[in-house]
Amino acid sequence: MAELIWNAGPVVKLVMLLLVYLSVVSWAIILYKWRLVRRALQQSQAFLDCFWSKRRLDLVAQQLDSFSDSPLTALFREGYQELVRVQPPRKEGEAPTLVLSDSGADNIARALRRSTTQQTQQLEKYLTFLATTGSTAPFIGLFGTVWGIMDSFHGIGQTGSASLAVVAPGISEALIATAIGLLAAIPAVVGYNYFLSKINRLIGQMDTFSQEFLNIVQHMARRA
């Protein structure tokens, strides 16, 4: 294999170098996203358990550092900070009560949507590279193969010999580019589909949590 790669033409070598680069970067992204998504899923579930077990939002806010890798933590922080901000100033000695106007509820909803968008962009970061590698690497490899075969037939035309011993080495060298292209594309496609399904799950959790948080706050304000 090493001898075939070394004896390949300069264009085929350039194609294989590009494919190796795409493969290495794809594997780095896969390992990084696997760790990120795994921790996000684990801590999101732990955060939900904490959120539903507590009876007060301020108690939940004190535990946020334990779930720093969960996107739900960012949503809660943004929503809770906006909730505190829209509260009217209390007079001295007045008992703390939760007040929420329609404009305050709209502000909290906007803060939750903004945080959801930011967290979604963070989760989907680098997925475009995996998708691009998975869709283009086979064609890049095929280009190297076609170019190598063209070069082989050009050599056959110059030597005037079409025996198998003359044709086979050039074609085998050219086919390596296609093989490397597939080796780069397959993990990228598998990783992209896997992470996309997990990220969609997290996005669904964020949408559900945003609605639940807003409903809880509105219910607490009406009860107060």
TrEMBL record:
Keywords: Cell cycle, Cell division, Cell inner membrane, Cell membrane, Membrane, Protein transport, Transmembrane, Transmembrane helix, Transport. Coiled coil: none annotated. GO terms for cellular component: plasma membrane. One of its GO terms (biological process) is bacteriocin transport. It is a multi-pass membrane protein. It holds the Pfam family MotA_ExbB. It is found in: Cell membrane; Membrane. The chain crosses the membrane at residues 12-32, 126-150, 170-196. Residues 70-207 form the MotA/TolQ/ExbB proton channel domain. The keyword GTP-binding does not apply. Belongs to the exbB/tolQ family. NCBIfam families: tolQ. This is Cell division and transport-associated protein TolQ. It comes from Desulfuromonas thiophila.
